[in-house]
Design a protein that fits this description.
Elements (H helix, E strand, L loop, with lengths): L1 H33 L3 H13 L3 H10 L2 H11 L26 H11 L4 E10 H15 L3 E6 L6 H15 L3 E7 L11 H7 L3 E5 L19 E4 L3 E5 L9 H4 L7 E6 L2 H17 L5 H4 L11 E8 L7 H12 L3 E5 L7 H12 L3 E6 L6 H10 L1 H4 L4 E5 L8 E4 L3 E5 L5 H6 L2 E7 L1 H16 L1 E4 L1 H5 L3 H12 L5
Parallel strand pairs: 2-3, 3-4, 9-10, 10-11
Antiparallel strand pairs: 1-7, 1-8, 2-5, 5-6, 6-7, 8-14, 9-12, 11-15, 12-13, 13-14
Helix pairs in contact: 1-2, 1-3, 2-3, 5-12, 6-7, 12-13, 14-19
């Protein structure tokens, strides 16, 4: 023992060097062998080798998702009945759109989503919390057998408590209620979490991917960013809006944020229920039976739309939204409209947009003039010149923050849901979107986007160049870290 202590005391610098070399070498080999993007592999190997002790630690925290990726993939897709693949529901045909450019996009969706495109769905657009929350609460109060709610943020504020009380009322009258909140999202509220209130009154509530250390980690990976509310398996609400008072004018006043949510009726609700059931089963190990949670027939109002869900996340559906958007931008013939609060696409998507603009397609990109995430806004600004110089039009809205995530192509195809156009949504988060083949729905979404453009400021190369150098340098430095924002 004495000799061992002597060796450690005398040769600890050499031992520390050998240890750091072994740890750094192991981490560097892992990064080189597991990263599919050569730039990511080079970056991580550089970080590890430049800092042989801190680099591997940072890589362990922020760079390795493969072990959890495989675990989630196996658990989420093992032996669980997929409600949405009901053979009695006819597959949809898009011939009525008179837009043959979308034939190949439908085939892409068939292969990417694994959900079939379904006809007979009614889509109602709800603008902001002033329209969405009262409709959601009314549906909860009318529920007869089941309520499934999944969200990223569920604040314990005046509006969050209204929704929570409606869920409690439903539970007390015998309705089966399940609530799934993301673990990271649950920590955004400064007050005690709403999950505590729901559990106190007997509502089954769970946190997705709970952090075992209980730490507040706003940039933690593998979050569920999905927003789903399903009533009796027949009516659903989905989109990009969380549950918080900031979206309601009575509570937020002049600082009210905007967003867009969707009420859905029809067979696509089965797909939404399937996604929720998978996430609930993964989190709680409870299998939700079809008869108690799904609807077998629908009679939604007209007009009807062809709809399917696109789920994405760090599991077997990784990059699903990325693939769908690449296909959509490639088939566009007239106009691409994009509204996104966080516009940080990778070089592949930027290339697709720039190629579309060079082909003569009008590409309008709408981003907030006032953003709720300052660092993301800096990184976005640093990248805008890459699309503007190739012919895309970028618009910064005036007024309050708009959290809407909306895309339309050629007035016939729409893509809506929870996904942002940033690395986190496209690669790390569990997201849920819908592709909608409907001229009526696309026209309504286009009006919302065009209304923003009409009161927006065009971003120009001259305007970007006029930004002081110190701010442009700051933006570029933040942009370098954009995959982790």
């Amino acid at each position: 023992m004495a000799s061992l202590e002597f060796l450690i005391r005398e040769y600890w610098p050499h031992l520390a060097f050998l240890l750091s070399l072994a740890i750094g070498g192991t981490a560097a080999v892992h990064a080189a062998m597991t990263k599919n993007d050569v730039r990511a592999a080079i970056g991580w190997v550089g970080v590890i080798m430049m800092s042989p002790l801190l680099g591997p630690l940072f890589y362990l925290i922020a760079g390795i998702n493969r072990i959890r990726h495989d675990h989630i993939s196996e658990q989420r897709n093992k032996g669980f009945k997929d409600y949405a693949l009901n053979p009695q529901l006819p597959a949809a045909q898009i011939d009525g759109l008179n837009a043959p450019q979308f034939d190949s996009l439908k085939i892409l969706g068939d292969r990417v989503s694994r959900f079939p495109l379904r006809d007979g769905n009614h889509i109602q657009i709800l603008c902001g919390g002033d329209e969405a929350y009262p409709a959601m609460i009314a549906s909860i109060d009318a529920a007869l057998k089941s309520i499934a709610l999944q969200t990223y943020i569920f604040d314990n504020d005046v509006e969050g408590r209204k929704v929570a009380q409606a869920l409690i009322r439903a539970h007390e009258r015998g309705v089966q209620v399940r609530v799934l909140i993301d673990s990271v999202g649950s920590k955004y509220s400064p007050r005690p979490p709403v999950a505590r209130l729901l559990r106190k009154h007997g509502v089954r509530t769970a946190l997705f991917m709970t952090n075992p250390l209980g730490m507040r980690m706003p940039y933690a990976n593998l979050r569920s960013h999905r927003k789903i509310l399903i009533i009796d398996g027949c009516t659903a609400y989905t989109g990009g809006m969380n549950i918080r008072a900031g979206f309601v004018r009575e509570a937020a006043g002049e600082n009210t944020a905007s967003d867009t949510h969707f009420k859905v009726e029809g067979p696509v609700v089965l797909q939404l229920m399937s996604v929720f059931a998978h996430d609930w089963d993964f989190t709680t190990k409870e299998n939700l039976p079809f008869d108690g949670w799904c609807c077998s027939s629908w009679n939604p109002p007209k007009p009807h739309a062809l709809v399917r869900c696109i789920r994405s996340g760090p599991d077997r559906y990784v990059m699903s939204t990325h693939h769908m958007l690449l296909g959509a931008f490639a088939v566009a013939q007239k106009h691409i409209r994009i509204q996104s609060p966080y516009f940080l696409p990778d070089q592949i998507l930027l290339g697709a947009l720039n190629t579309a603009a060079r082909r003569g397609i009008i590409v309008d990109i709408v981003i907030p003039g006032r953003n709720n995430l300052r660092l993301v806004n800096y990184a976005m600004t640093a990248q805008l010149d890459q699309v503007i110089r190739n012919g895309c039009r970028v618009w910064r809205t005036r007024g309050n923050f708009n959290h809407s995530k909306l895309i339309t192509i050629d007035g016939a195809w729409s893509y809506v849901g929870s996904s942002n156009l940033d690395p986190r949504s496209l690669r790390l988060n569990f997201e849920l979107d819908m592709e909608i083949y409907s001229r009526e729905t696309a026209a309504r979404i286009e009006r919302l986007i065009d209304r923003e453009i009409n009161d927006a400021e065009a971003v120009t190369l001259e305007g970007l160049a006029a930004i002081p150098f110190r701010k442009r340098l700051r933006n570029r430095i933040i942009w370098l870290a954009s995959p982790y924002l």
